[in-house]
Task: structure prediction
Amino acid sequence: MAVSPEEIGLCGCWQVVAVQRESLDMGDPEAKPTVEVGYYASSVSREERDDAAMLAAIRGHWSAIENGTHYRRDVTLGEDANRTADRKGAAVLASLRNLANGLYELERERKRTKVDTLRSWCQQQTFSSAWPLLCR
Result:
């Protein structure tokens, strides 16, 4: 069913895109695919990006997130396994994870570390070694 962005309360939006994804748990040989629909609102018009270009942009965005910061925050730093119930505490922990990730990336970019993983780099850090990184 086609709707305009105004009809669903998204004034200023040019497109609403629905993308159906199928996922399969590769760790479970008997797993059945799950289907999920994601909705995206865009200020880009159909004349600027057709369906194929919008799909490429969405895939590129998620590829960067899943293979970049999300992977590091979840797998390396265990974010999804953390069960902090307090919203403020969870926000502080997320900020600290982002800070650690950012400092590691800066050190790699400036060629100040030879460590090849965020986990290894974090394990080497102490307050005394991390504080100067914050003050540069």
Summary: The helical segments are 51-67, 69-76, 87-109, 118-124, 127-134. The CA atoms of residues 13 and 43 lie 5 Å apart. The first strand starts at residue 15 and ends at 23.
